[in-house]
Design brief:
It is globular, with a radius of gyration of 17 Å. About 15% of the residues are buried. A hairpin with a 4-residue loop joins strand 8 and strand 9. The chain has one helix and eleven strands; from the N terminus they run αβββββββββββ. It has about 210 residues and is mainly beta. The longest helix has 18 residues.
Length: about 210
């Protein structure tokens, strides 16, 4: 398991290294608050997130999410949610999203590998159009014994299902910090590589998230 974990981390690092060879053009922040109410196997969740760009000088977008899920066993869970997006960077575009995903997790001692497949159906009321996106995310993490820190590397790839083309990819390095009582913080650096009409472009991001599980 440890050898597999090291291989996965190396692969994630290679992805991030490859991405860093692209032109870097911007800096921004992602900040979020998430609440999860557990009822044993089933759970409810809500999230609010804000994203800045143009060297933290403007709001790229913000969204609100509400949904629920179910833990089928110790390694598989699925959830369904609705998201309301407001995107000032695209002329105050509004999007409504239905999101469905499964997450598979393998754990051994302090190591964990998780693969998440997420499908997004987005509706643009201004254009009366739909878009379909598949997001594949791979996360590797290690929690040292008796530590409040859980460092991780994570890679996520977005595919436009309408044409099969790459949309963007996210390359994370971060750590979760357990505060006890279901409270935790998430600090990360992300290299965001995305597709434009002029070709690949990129943004460097710093993120902070707060989660309460109760």
């Amino acid at each position: 398991m440890k050898k597999l974990f090291i291989c996965i981390l190396a692969a994630l690092a290679l992805c991030a290294s490859s991405a860093s060879a692209q032109n870097e053009s911007d800096f921004g922040t992602w900040s979020s608050i998430q609440l999860v109410k557990s009822f044993g196997a089933p759970y409810l969740m809500a999230r609010a997130e804000h994203r800045s760009f143009e060297n933290v000088g403007a709001t790229e977008c913000w969204f609100l999410m509400a949904g629920g899920g179910y833990n089928f066993n110790s390694w598989l869970k699925g959830d369904l949610s609705y998201e309301y997006w407001k995107i000032p960077s695209a002329g105050s575009l509004v999007q409504h999203k239905a999101v469905f995903c499964f997450t598979e997790t393998l754990k051994r001692e302090g190591l964990a590998l998780a693969l998440r497949e997420k499908y997004e159906l987005a509706y643009n009321p201004a254009a009366e159009s739909f878009s379909h996106t598949l997001r594949t995310r791979l996360r590797g993490q290690y929690k040292p014994q008796d530590s409040i820190f859980t460092p991780y590397l994570m890679y996520e790839y977005f595919t436009n299902l309408s044409n099969g083309k790459w949309v963007r990819s996210l390359h994370y390095a971060g750590t979760e910090v357990s505060l006890g009582g279901g409270h935790s913080l998430d600090f990360f650096y992300m290299y965001h590589l995305y597709n434009t009409v002029l070709g690949p472009n990129a943004c460097n991001l710093l993120g902070i998230g707060y989660t309460l599980v109760f």
